[in-house]
Amino acid sequence: MRRIIFSLSMLFVLSGCATQYQSRGFTGGHTDQQGPGKLYKIVFAGNGFTSDDIAQKYVLYRSAEIAQSLNKPFFIMYHSLTNAALGQPSNAPSIGIVLNRPTAIAFILPLDVSRAAAHDTKATLHNLRDVIAKGQLPTSDTAEKQ
Amino acid sequence: MTLISRVASACALLFLTACGILPTYAPTAEEKTIEIRFISFVKPSICFEDKTYKINLTENNGKYFARIPANKRVTFSNEQSFHGYQVISYCTASLSLTTESDKKIVLNAGTYGDKCYIEAVLEDSSTPTGVKIDPSLSPPHC
């Protein structure tokens, strides 16, 4: 019994860092679902070690992955269904932070042709490649935020 | 602990927990209902004609639905709890709308900043995004 408790404790200690870019599991991750309408909902739930900037970048990257899987070269992002219904796009996902855990949310509309406020699918995947691989923002980006 | 005190404790516990239990909405065969999609709801409930019910969502291909009374003003609520280190945070969000039979209503729940919210739209394939604002949307009625 002690061994199990010790092993679990070690597991928590070792995994006690920011949620990586991954499909949602015990420590968080991304989920996506189709609809309503022509939209897709993308969510990334982080843990207490995940910054809100990273959570937003993960949703942006996941959005581009979804658009690419649908062969859509562009996509528009909305904070909420209400914003989508009103035609009010946003540059970044919305962020909710409860008990120091960020959750980034976006509804995306995949597109065949570019439109005002549209994200380029390939460019988004390319630009965020390093962020996804390293799990952190580039130093210059972090400096800009500060 | 004697048997009497054990029984008394159990009764007290049952009495106290019963305060938070809502009846589950179960429409009768004659009752007109519409199917509504719920996204990211944790603990949904409805209120109409001054009665509050919890609702059970049914899953179909990863999407969640519930049958709701048709042609009434219904208040929808979602309660969420967040568990942290030695702390639990609760929040509830509500809104109301009318449930005409021809509407395709979708409700979505989420958090923005440190607040939780719910929102409702109507599915309409004629709009650019496939959703539009429900004109009957208003604050909770009960």
Q: How many domain regions of chain A? A: 1
β-strand percent of chain B reads: over 45%
Strand content of chain A: 15-25%
CATH topology of chain B: Immunoglobulin-like
- Determine the number of helices of chain A (DSSP H or I, runs of at least 4 residues): 6
The topology string of helices and strands of chain A comes to HEEHEHEEEHHH
The helix/strand class of chain B is mainly beta
The number of helices of chain B is: 1
The radius of gyration computed from the alpha-carbon positions of chain A, rounded to a whole number of angstroms, is 17 Å
- How would you characterize the largest beta sheet of chain B? 6 strands, mixed
- Multimer state: heterodimer
Low-pLDDT segments of chain B? none
The class by helix and strand makeup of chain A works out as alpha+beta
**Secondary-structure element pattern of chain B, one letter each:** HEEEEEEEEEE
Look at the structure and give the mean pLDDT of chain B. 89
> In what order do the strands lie side by side in the largest sheet of chain B?
4-5-1-8-9-10
Domains counted in the coordinates of chain B: how many? 1
Helix content of chain B: 10-25%
Question: Can you give a write-up of this model?
Answer:
The complex is a heterodimer of chains A (146) and B (142). Chain A has helices at 2-14, 52-69, 81-86, 121-127, 129-134, 139-145, and strands spanning 29-34, 40-45, 74-78, 94-98, 101-111, 119-120. Chain A contains 6 helices and 6 strands. Chain A is 39% helix and 24% strand. In chain A, helix 2 crosses helix 4. Chain A has 146 residues and is α+β, with helices and mostly antiparallel strands. Chain A has one domain (19-145). In chain A, strand 4 (94-98) and strand 5 (101-111) form a beta hairpin. In chain A, strands 1, 2, 3, 4, 5 and 6 form a 6-stranded antiparallel sheet that branches. The termini of chain B are far apart. With 142 residues, chain B is mainly beta. In chain B, a hairpin with a 2-residue loop joins strand 4 and strand 5. Chain B has a single domain, classed as Immunoglobulin-like. Chain B has 1 helix and 10 strands, in the order αββββββββββ. Chain B is globular. In chain B, the strands form 2 sheets. Chain B has a 6-stranded mixed sheet with strand order 4-5-1-8-9-10, with no helix packed on it. The chains are: A alpha+beta (146), B mainly beta (142). The interface between A and B is medium-sized, with 28 and 34 residues.
